[in-house]
Write a structure and sequence with these properties.
The protein has 433 residues and is α+β, with helices and mostly antiparallel strands. The protein folds into 2 domains: 218 residues, no CATH class; 144 residues, Histidine kinase-like ATPase, C-terminal domain (Heat Shock Protein 90), CATH 3.30.565. Helix content is 65%, strand content 9%. The protein contains 13 helices and 5 strands. A 5-stranded mixed beta sheet has the order 1-2-3-5-4. The longest helix has 75 residues.
């Protein structure tokens, strides 16, 4: 009895395409809507058409090659629309394939049980298909949204991609064992057994996949929380160091009085001029901006201005620091420390010092504190839905500065937005007053 064509190839093709669509809706980059719709329409036509054309191929090596080709069509669809790497495309296609196999198997088993004598394509058959696929792929989308982020897809290694690929092959082979080895101890003898084994094997594969994925997601969340705590702690520690620097400045100002007294008694004109030049250089080095009304902000800004001067970076600031008085010290350190550090790291990449510009503003707009930190760009930044792609080599251990800013602003119900345009990167933060 040949059962290889039990599940209509159209149903299989629709399931594989739907699985890919769910992956893309969760993780795809900002692809324009029109191309996305066009590629998706072509993908469902090609995926279903290819499987329907090869529907007469029975079980065997050729059928395995057909299913391999169908899998690579899924990879191509995700690669074209997702703006991801080859690793991300294979990983997403493997997850989609696992869920597609389960959805198609479950639907066909229910069809065999409930609508055994009703032909495919009738209203009841289509309703069952739509219901099962909607439930399975809705759950798939929900779990993806909770546990797989675009950032995770970008950080995948070939080891992780190989692991899910092996899982996919094992589940697929075991679920279809009855079609290849009808006499094995794990094969079914009748249709009901074969359908049950196939559905259970695919369900088991999905359970293993999500057990592994949820565990990895929790570990990554713990790592991110640890990294963010480290960022917050280090910014606060920098603030403490800046305070010590200001205390040193006050000591220098005190010493300056004694130097002025010495200058009054110096009769040699050349020595006096050299002494004055030395004092002027020291004052430039430790120059403080005009007080804004918030001591913490003033301290951080002073330190970053001194660093900017060393890097030939021009910084302008228009700020009403008193608006920040309701924010906790650590949150002010996190927001401005990280934002200014990121801006300085960006502008120093510009070869021409005249184009190294940073602007800082803090103002009241309606019922919000509006913070804007803008800097000129030397290279284009790639934006994703959740974050910016760092230009640093170690991408896994960077990017927490912006997350720290979002976390600090979020504590007050604030909102963070950023945009790279016209040669400038603009970071805007709104915090309710």
């Amino acid at each position: 009895m040949e059962l290889i064509n039990d599940i209509p190839r159209l149903y299989t093709g629709l399931a594989e395409w739907a699985g890919c669509l769910v992956v893309l809706l969760n993780c795809r980059r900002k692809v324009r809507t029109a191309p996305f719709i066009a590629i998706s329409a072509a993908a469902v036509f090609i995926q279903c058409g290819f499987l329907m054309i090869t529907a007469d191929i029975g079980a065997g090596i050729v059928w395995i090659l057909v299913m391999t080709a169908a899998f690579f069509l899924m990879c191509l669809y995700i690669f074209l629309c997702g703006g991801t790497t080859a690793k991300g495309a294979v990983y997403g296609a493997a997850a989609a394939f696992l869920h597609a196999e389960f959805a198609a198997s479950l639907e066909w088993q229910l069809h065999f049980w409930l609508l055994k004598h009703i032909p495919v394509g009738t209203p009841f058959s289509v309703l069952l298909l739509a219901t099962v696929y909607l439930i399975v792929f809705s759950l798939f989308y929900y779990l993806l949204k909770r546990h797989i982020t675009e950032e995770y897809i970008r950080s995948l290694t070939w080891k992780e991609v190989t692991s899910i690929s092996i899982l996919m092959l094992f589940v697929f082979a075991f679920s279809n064992l009855s079609f290849f080895l009808s006499g094995s101890p794990f094969s079914g003898r009748v249709q009901e057994d074969i359908f049950a084994i196939r559905t259970l094997a695919n369900g088991f594969g999905i359970a293993v996949y999500w057990g592994f994925q949820i565990n990895i997601s929790e570990l990554l969340t713990q790592k991110e929380l640890y990294a963010m705590r480290h960022v917050l702690s280090s910014q606060y520690e920098q603030f403490r160091n800046y305070q010590e620097s200001e205390e040193m400045l006050h000591m220098m100002q005190h010493d300056l009085k004694h130097q002025i007294e010495g200058l009054r008694g110096e009769t040699n004109e050349q020595k006096r001029e050299a002494w004055l030049d030395k004092i002027e250089n020291e004052l430039d080095k430790w120059w403080l901006p005009q007080r804004t009304g918030n001591a913490v902000f003033d301290t951080i800004l002073s330190a970053k201005l001194r660093k900017a001067r060393q890097l030939d970076v021009r910084v302008t600031c228009v700020a009403d620091g008193a608006l920040l008085n309701r924010l906790h010290v650590a949150d002010i350190c996190t927001i401005f420390g990280n934002a200014l550090d990121n801006a300085l790291e960006s502008v120093v990449m510009i070869p021409d010092p005249q184009k190294r510009l940073i602007h800082v503003s803090v103002s009241a707009q309606k019922n919000f504190i509006f913070i804007n930190i803008s800097n000129t760009l030397g290279t284009d930044l790639i934006e994703s839905e959740d974050s910016l792609l760092t230009t640093k080599e170690d991408k896994k251990n960077h990017g927490y500065g912006l997350k720290g800013i979002k976390y600090a602003a979020g504590k007050y119900g604030g909102y963070v937005a950023y945009k790279a345009e016209d040669g400038w990167f603009r970071l805007n933060i709104l915090i309710p007053m």
